[in-house]
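Bumping with the actual sequence this time:
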Amino acid sequence: MDRLFGPSARLLLLGLGLSLFAATAQAQDLDAIKRRGIVNVGTQADYPPFEFIQDGKIVGYDEDLLNLVVSSWGVKLNQFDLPFAGLLTGLSQNKYDLICTALLILPGRGDVVSMTLPVAVARVGFYKRKGDTNVKSIDDLTGVTIGAVVPPSGPTAMMRAWNDNLKKNGKGAADIKYFQGSTDLALALLNGQVDVWGTTNLTMLAQMKKYPDKFELVENFGDPYYYAWAARAQNTSLRDSINVELRKIRDGGKMRELQQKWFGLTMDLPDSGYLPPDGK
């Protein structure tokens, strides 16, 4: 017996056993949702055109994608509309299975969540009221008030880092005011509570459509960033199950159809290389 199953063979069998156990454990994540018959999803429905409330229901680009994924699983959707600041905490506390909202793939997030394939890509920039001559350049924000979504929003983190660098040369903003979502921020920019808003072009597209000829781009900064959904950091198997469906939707052309519907443009999205070094 020892000759047939020596140390190397036993290690091989152990490895195979662990692989089978891992495969079984991975299958149980989605299987558990299917047995339950319900998938619990956290969302902040205040980021048009990704997700927002219309006629009492959550609608938007992410919502259309989510409904396709949930339908493919044959389960019901139980969706929680929550402030963005509590979404990651709620996920870690097992209050829901995944987050489906406008979540940027950022360094550091791989420690707390497991990110899916990208569903969109965007540039981050500063936007102002159209014709406002007080804001001329993103390299000099002296005296202006910036509007931002409450942390830990990705664009907010990028904007703060940008402003911190400007401060070193005495060109940083006079103040930063925080708001719960893009609806409140758009109104704050319109009525002069803030002078600029640091956000992505996709988020701003919806506000420019809602308020034609009221806003304009000052300038983009940084590299393009990808949007994705998230499962818990340790639940990569559920993330992978979501990716299977997102890949089908993307490769079948439905994702581009929904991008055209909600953004008025289409995007090329990668299969790999989108995660930061700490990504999972």
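The tokens above came from a reply further down the thread. The longest helix spans residues 7-36.
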